[in-house]
Design a protein that fits this description.
With 213 residues, this protein is of the alpha/beta class. It contains eight helices and five strands. It is elongated. The chain starts with 18 loop residues before the first helix and ends in a 25-residue tail after the last helix.
C-alpha cells in the first residue's frame, strides 16, 4: 500500500501584533520622548507584553515616530506644559469696560498646576514700571513657595519689560515668552477673555519699590 505524505498547512511568518499592543507602543513613545526601543521593550515586558525591540522599531517607523533623540528634540509646547506644570506660572492682561465707558487693564498670574489665579492689579494705564512692581508683590505673596516656580510664561506684549523679567530672574525663575502665534496657557483656559462691564472705575495701589508700606 503506497504511503501518502500529508503536511499540515502553516501560515507564513509570525502572528500579527495585536492592535492594542501597537497602540501601547505608540503611546509610550509619545509620552516618553527620551525612551529608545529597548527601554520601551522593557516597559512592555513589565506590563506583560513580550515584544522584540525590532518590533517596537517597526511599529514606530510605520507610525511616523522617529528614534528617541529626534523625538526628544521635537518635544511640543503642550508636552512641556504637561511635564513642568507644577513649576510653572503664567501671566497675562485682560481688560474690562466700566459703566463710564473706560477701559481698565487687569494683570493676573496663574499657577498652572492648581489653576489658582492671583489678581495683582487694575489700572487704566499699564506701564512697564507698574508691572515690575506687581511682580515684586507676587513674589512676596508667595513667600517660601516662590522658589518652587522655575518658569514664568508670558506673551510678547511690550508691557512686559526687562525690569519685569529681572524681578523673576532674581528669584531664579526663568521667563519664557510664548512662541510667535503660539497659545498662551491662560488664554486657552478662558481667563484672559474680555470681562463683563465692571460696576466702578478703580485702580490698584502699587508702591515704587518691592517693599510695601
Amino acid at each position: 500500500m503506497p504511503w501518502k505524505w500529508h503536511q499540515t498547512a502553516v501560515g507564513p511568518g509570525r502572528p500579527p501584533l495585536a492592535e492594542e499592543t501597537a497602540a501601547l507602543i505608540q503611546r509610550l513613545a509619545r509620552e516618553n520622548p527620551t525612551w529608545g526601543y529597548v527601554r520601551i521593550q522593557g516597559e512592555l515586558r513589565r506590563l506583560g507584553h513580550r515584544v522584540a525591540a525590532a518590533t517596537v522599531r517597526r511599529v514606530l517607523r510605520r507610525s511616523g515616530l522617529p528614534p528617541a533623540p529626534q523625538r526628544a528634540s521635537q518635544q511640543t509646547w503642550r508636552i512641556f506644559l504637561q511635564a513642568q506644570a507644577h513649576t510653572l506660572l503664567a501671566c497675562d492682561f485682560m481688560h474690562v469696560e466700566t459703566v463710564f465707558l473706560r477701559r481698565l487693564y487687569v494683570f493676573f498670574v496663574m499657577e498652572i498646576a492648581t489653576r489658582r489665579v492671583h489678581v495683582l492689579g487694575v489700572t487704566a494705564h499699564p506701564t512697564g514700571a507698574w508691572g515690575a512692581r506687581l511682580a515684586c508683590n507676587l513674589l512676596m505673596d508667595l513667600q517660601e513657595r516662590a522658589g518652587c516656580f522655575r518658569f514664568l510664561i508670558r506673551d510678547r506684549d511690550s508691557k512686559f519689560t526687562a525690569a519685569f523679567d529681572a524681578v523673576f530672574a532674581g528669584n531664579g525663575t526663568a521667563v519664557i515668552p510664548t512662541p510667535p502665534q503660539g497659545p498662551t496657557p491662560t488664554r486657552n483656559d478662558g481667563y484672559a477673555q474680555p470681562a463683563p462691564s465692571a460696576p466702578t472705575d478703580s485702580s490698584s495701589p502699587a508702591n515704587d519699590t518691592c517693599v510695601r508700606s
